[in-house]
Each structure stands twice: as C-alpha cells, then as structure tokens.
Write a structure and sequence with these properties.
The complex is a heterodimer of chains A (243) and B (486). Chain A is α+β, with helices and mostly antiparallel strands. Chain A folds into 2 domains: 75 residues, Roll (Ubiquitin-like (UB roll)); 132 residues, Alpha-Beta Plaits, CATH 3.30.70. Chain A is 24% helix and 16% strand. In chain A, the strands form 3 sheets. Chain A has a 5-stranded mixed β-sheet, with helices on one face. A 3-stranded antiparallel β-sheet of chain A has the order 6-7-10. In chain B, the strands form 3 sheets. In chain B, strands 2-1-3-4-5 form a 5-stranded mixed β-sheet, with helices on one face. In chain B, strands 11-10-14-12-13 form a 5-stranded mixed β-sheet. A 4-stranded parallel β-sheet of chain B has the order 8-7-6-9, with helices on both faces. The longest helix of chain B has 18 residues. The N and C termini of chain B lie far apart (73 Å). Helix content of chain B is 42%, strand content 16%. Chain B is of the alpha/beta class. The radius of gyration of chain B is 23 Å and the shape is globular. Classes of the chains: A alpha+beta (243), B alpha/beta (486).
C-alpha cells in the first residue's frame, strides 16, 4: 500500500473505515477485525477470485463482487453477511464438498483444513446436493510428498506459489469444467517432473489434505499458509532473518 | 441473352452440394460467367445460385440441379435491410479486385484524412452497440481506448462465435472478409492502435481460409494503412468468446477468464489498452463512417440503433441468414420472413445458452436489447431458434445446461460444480421423477450460479432454465413424480 495515495472512506456492515485508495476490500474487511471466508485467496499470491466465497454486496452496485480483487472506492457501503450472501456461501461450500471426495475422518488435514473451517463458519453440517463421488487418483510418485486429487478444490494456490514464489512452475490446471485437475509438468507423474525443487511450498499452502507430506498420518498435517506473504514481504523489504 | 451466375460458396451451401451445382453451371455458360459469392441468405434451400440477366432481371434457384425457383420478392428477402451484409452475396470473397470494385477500403481511405476524434464521435453518434451479445455502446468503448495515453494499443476482433444455432459472424467472414478488415483498420486509426488480431474459432476453416487470403491480398496492396492484422485460431473452447479468456488465449495461456476491472480498454492484451469488438460490430463500421452516424442512428429504436443480423433456424419453413432493422417484431421475422413454423410454434429461443425463450403469445415483441431483456432473454449474438410444440421445455433447458457443463472452464466453483448439479436436477424433470423440493432447489441454485459466477458464461448459464420456468412452469410441475402434489 502506498502512503502517497489519498485515503478513502466508507463503511462495512455499518462500521466506518478509512483505507488507502489501492487497498482491496478484503484487506479492509480483515483490517477492521471483520471476517469473510476465503479459500483461493492467500496473502502473498496473486488473487484470482475463483472460489467466490468472499463475495460481498456493495450498495448501488448491481453485482456481488469478490472482496479479494475489488479495490475500495470512496463512499463504498459494503455488506459482508446479507441473508443472500449467507445462503450462497453455504451453497458454495456444499458444492465444494459434493464435487470432490472429502472424508474428514481419515484425512491428513483433519483439524487443520480450511475447507472444514469454512464449513463450520457457514454452518454447513451436510450437503443438500448429491455427492458426485468422482473417480480421481492419488499421485504418490514424488519421494517426499503426495497429491490426493480427491481432496483438491482447485484453488490453484499450489500453482501460484510454485510459479510466483518458487519460480519453478511445476503445477498447472489441466482439462476443463468438472474434469479440471491440477497437473504436474506436462501432465506427468509428479516424481518425473525435473523442475520440482521439492521445496514443499505447495504442501504448505494447500488449504485441504490434497497435498501432504508422506510421513503425515490422519490429522497430522501442519500447513503454513503464512509463508507466501512472509517470503514476498522478505523479498520486497529485504528482511532476512539472519541480518 | 447472356446470364451471369452468382453461386453461393459459403459453408451451408457447400455442404448441400454447391460444388456440383457450380460445375454444372460452368459447363453450361463457361467458368467466366460463374462467380462464387458469400451467403445468399436462404440457407435451408441451398445450394443457392442467382442468375443475373443482362437486362437487369435477377432470379434465384435452389437445389443441386437448380430445381427450385425461389422468389426474391418473398418477405424473407424483401424485408431485409442489408448494411453489414450489403456486399455479402454480391462480391467474390476471395477476390480483392472484386471487393475494391465494389467500394471496399474507400471509407478507410477517406477516414485517413479525418481526425481520429471525429471517427470516434461518428461511432458514438451512430448509437451502435456491441453485437457480440452484451450490447455495450461501441462508441463509448472506443472513447475509453482512445483516451488511454499508452503509446502502444491493440485492436482485437472476437470471431469466436460459438452459440448453438449462430452463424452470423461466420457468414460475414466467409462472404465479405475485406469489410471486417476495413472496419478494424478504421477502428485502429480511431483509437490509435498499431497492431490488430482476429481470434477465430478453429471450427470455421472456410472463414479462416478466406481471412488469410484477404489479409495477404490487402497487405500486398497496401490498403490497410499499414496495420498488421494477425490471425489467431482457437482451440475449441466456447469460453474463449469471453473477452478476458480470449486475450489469455492469444497470449498463449489457458483460456480462462479473469475478474474485471481492469477492463481490456485499460489493460488488455499484454497489459496494453485493447479495443475488443465482435465481427459484426466491426463490419458495421465502414457503412457508419461512409454514411454518417446519424444515418445509422435513424434506423432501429430509441435504445437499439441500426440493423442486426440473425441466424434463423429450428422448426421454421425458411431457415437462413437475415439482417433486419432493430425493433422488427419477432412475429414479422417468424411468420412473414420465416414463412411460419413447421409445426405449431411454441417459442423463439434467442441468445443461445445465455438467453431464453420468448413464448408464442409474446411474438409481437420488438427485437431490441431492452425488450428481450425484459422478458428474461437477451439479444445475444444473433442466434434465433424457433421451437415447436414437440419440444418439452425442461429438455430444452437441459440441452443448454449440458452445453454449459461441457464448456465451463472450471476456474470458478459455481460454474464448475453448480452447472453439473443443475444438469442433474434437470434430468429429474426430463425423466419425470422430480420432487417439489427439486423444483425449489433448481430455482435457488439457478439464482446462486447466476449471482456468484466469475464470468458471463456462468452468470448466464441459468438463463434458459429461468426463462422456461417463467413462461412454461406448468411443464416443470407436470414433470413431478406421479403421486407427488406440489
């Protein structure tokens, strides 16, 4: 955020805010101590606006807008939890659960899963949409890590962290629609992709149990979603721990 | 008495046997008196050939043996108002000499002597709105790009026409490619762009061939005012008709949309200010700059100026390509021009998978942006499919939903997972095993996908369902499982 830009004023859920003119709504919402769920967003990575959980209503604006990519404007009156938004958010979480194969009981991420957290946050205790039980596979070809596609929600955090922070661009999205999947290299087994540096950043940022360390058993995954922001900041501000 | 033949050499007539007809005519009168041309409009009667007699009379024939005599005076032809298609069917699309002889590039040459701001102003005055479907005012878009201070700007033509039942842009590219190039060159001059791209879908091989020929010839003759125009061929994704996905695809990336703003006018191809318009929009430009914005604005209605090309198909007597003034009623198009339905007309579907169904009771609706939107449909790019009584509406809605499921890029959740659930809900109605709870869920999920999807594809995917629910709700209720009372 640049200090040179003039401040803008507005309100979120009736609470007044002052923010830098280039701040995103999500930054302002969280800065004000308010909460809006996110899954694809991660501080330090380019926002993509794909999970649609952070949609908010802006008075006088015809469409709901994703807070992660919307820049604040002077006079903005924002609502984060209208009945409509709460209904849609719950439906979105149901759709996430129904489109994959999410079984918390024996998942490595049980207890530290952002999808699970969001389900609790929006009050989703069951899906009203039929489970699709897609036929997916597990890629255990990497010596240290595994990718269980059944648990993937296509947030593309792994794609972005590998491209933007690590600079290896091992991951990408292949195919389309409901058959989309994260692919390694040129849709190869992960272990065959020479570009992978085995840095583990993709595992750190994965919001579910899709990417995990092989030694982790049920409920043993400890993700580090704060790392991209720390690394991005360290690079831009030259803050190194050993200095 | 001598006769010259114009033989339709567009995709539909080729498929119907145009080559055989042309061979026969060439053997009869000599190859020099037979000219291949673009779409002659009445595609359903093809292959078509027009006989122009020396005394000025013209006759139209259809069929491989020319066995059907057709009538130029029929309302299908008589009620057309060719502007975009003014040379389509008259000019040999592979011959730049023929195009130049019929006035191609004369407007561009005249525009080069005028200040750029004046060109933009003329388009603003014309009231032209984007013909790709969204209907954004073209002049305003040009103003936005022209106002950008960057030294490099780009003009992009969206030729990724993909709605089922739509072939307007294909016909323009196949029938009069130089008109598109001229429109783009005028636009480039008006907004200050020095390079241009045409993004055309791979499923249009003939259009691609004609564009290649036209670009090479126009560049060779130096008539494009130095504007380099490059072709980019799609890889089969409908979503690449969405402008940000299209730009990603040109850049060599995966064809997925991104949130806007920034709009392409500010940051488009490679971050440069980009003017992106549809084929038909660019093709209207030469006529607007030649005759003046006021001339164009005199046609049509208050909010929808000029003319629009429609691809008329479905259960109707005369199928083909029409260009009519905005505000023409659906009844005029279906009953007078189209010769009425093959069976009992039930509805007219406009706007493809993003549009909706106008029931037959509302056939007097004028075709303009506002009227169609008020009825829960959209103008769309120009596909117009006549639906007869044999088609059950839940099945029609499922057809379009399947299309969206197959074409969703998968980036955002509501479109990727929501359309799949919508398709399965519609299955239950088609198979008459739905419950009242399914009906409630169908409506709620339609609302969610529409309100929360990232791009136009997902936002409009529920429209065919919502529109048929609005006008044909009884069909959904009748599809509830036996014994279940709503």
């Amino acid at each position: 955020m640049s200090a040179k830009l003039p401040a803008v004023h507005g309100s979120i859920n009736g609470q007044a805010f002052t923010a830098a003119a280039d701040a995103t709504l999500l930054q302002v919402i969280r800065g004000a101590g308010l909460q809006v769920p996110t899954l694809c967003h991660l501080d330090g990575l380019t926002p993509v606006g794909a999970c649609r959980l952070c949609l908010v209503a802006i008075e006088g604006h015809p469409k709901l807008e994703p807070a992660c990519v919307t820049t604040v404007a002077d006079g903005m009156v924002v609502h984060t939890h209208t009945p409509e938004l709460e209904t849609y958010r719950r439906m979105a979480v149901e759709l996430f659960f129904a489109e994959g194969n999410h079984v918390c009981a024996f998942c490595v991420a049980n207890g530290s899963c952002e999808l699970q957290d969001v389900a609790v946050e929006v009050g989703m205790d069951h899906s009203r949409f039929p489970y699709q039980y897609p036929q997916r596979h597990v890629d255990a070809s990497h010596p240290q890590f595994s990718l269980d596609h059944h648990r993937c929600i296509l947030c593309t955090r792994c794609v972005r962290v590998c491209d933007e922070i690590e600079g290896a661009h091992v991951w990408d999205v292949g195919y389309r629609g409901s058959t989309c999947s994260i692919i390694a290299g040129l849709d190869q087994p992960w272990g065959d992709v020479a570009a992978c540096t085995s840095c583990g950043k993709c595992v750190d940022v994965c919001p579910t149990g899709a990417l995990f360390r092989k030694e982790d058993g049920t409920g043993e995954k400890h993700p580090h979603p704060e790392r991209p922001r720390q690394l991005a900041e360290a690079r831009s501000e030259h803050h190194w721990q050993n200095q | 008495m001598a006769v010259t033949w114009r033989c339709c050499d567009a995709t539909a007539c080729r498929a119907a046997g145009a080559a055989a007809l042309r061979q026969r005519l060439e053997a009869e009168v000599g190859a020099e008196r037979v000219k291949p041309v673009g779409c002659l409009r009445l595609c359903g009667q093809g292959p078509l050939a027009a006989a122009d007699h020396d005394d000025g009379r013209s006759e139209l024939f259809g069929g491989v043996a020319g066995e059907r005599r057709l009538d130029w005076a029929h309302p299908f032809f008589a009620l057309q108002r060719p502007v975009v298609l003014e040379r389509c069917g008259l000019v040999d699309p592979s011959s730049i000499d023929d195009a130049l002889a019929q006035g191609a590039y004369a407007t561009l040459a005249a525009c080069r002597l005028r200040p750029a701001a004046e060109l933009v102003e003329e388009v603003v005055r014309s009231g032209l709105r984007g013909r790709g479907g969204a209907g954004y005012p073209t002049g305003r878009k040009w103003q936005l790009v022209a106002a950008q201070s960057n030294a490099s700007k780009v003009v992009v033509c969206n030729a990724d026409e993909g709605d089922p039942g739509a072939f307007m842009d294909r016909s323009v590219m196949e029938g009069d490619p130089h008109r598109l190039l001229e429109g783009m060159a005028i636009a480039a001059q008006a907004v200050g762009a020095a390079e241009a791209y045409i993004y055309v879908r791979a499923e249009y091989p003939l259009a691609i061939e004609r564009l290649r020929t036209a670009i090479a010839a126009a560049t060779d003759r130096g008539v494009l005012a130095g504007l380099p125009i490059q072709l980019r061929i799609g890889a089969g994704a409908y979503v690449c008709g969405e402008e940000t996905a299209l730009l990603h695809s040109i850049e060599g990336g995966r064809g997925t949309p991104r949130p806007r703003p920034p709009y392409p006018a500010a940051s488009g191809l490679w971050g440069l200010p980009t003017l992106i318009n549809n084929v038909e929009t660019f093709a209207a430009i030469p006529a607007i700059l030649r005759e003046g914005g006021d001339w164009y604005a005199a046609m049509g209605t208050a909010g929808s100026k000029g003319t629009k090309v429609f691809a008329l198909s479905g259960a109707i007597t005369h199928t083909g390509l029409i260009e009519v003034e905005m505000g023409t009623s659906l009844r005029t198009i279906v009953e007078a021009m189209g010769g009425g339905g093959l069976g009992v007309v039930k509805a007219v579907q406009t706007g493809g998978p993003s549009g909706g169904c106008i029931p037959v009771e509302l056939l007097d609706t004028p075709v303009d942006y506002a009227s169609l939107q008020q009825l829960g449909s959209i103008m769309g790019s120009g596909g117009m499919v006549v639906i007869d009584g044999s088609m059950a509406m839940p099945e029609l809605a499922r057809y379009f939903m399947r299309f969206c499921v197959a074409e969703s890029c998968g980036k955002c959740l509501p479109c990727r997972a929501g359309t799949v659930q919508l398709e399965q809900l519609l299955d239950r109605f088609v198979e008459k095993r739905a419950s009242p709870a399914d009906l409630a869920q169908l409506e709620q999920l339609c609302g969610m996908v529409k309100a929360t999807s990232l791009c136009g594809l997902g936002q409009s995917a529920p429209n065919p369902v919502l529109s048929t629910l609005r006008f044909f709700r009884a069909e959904y209720e009748a599809a509830l499982a036996p014994g279940v009372v709503p």
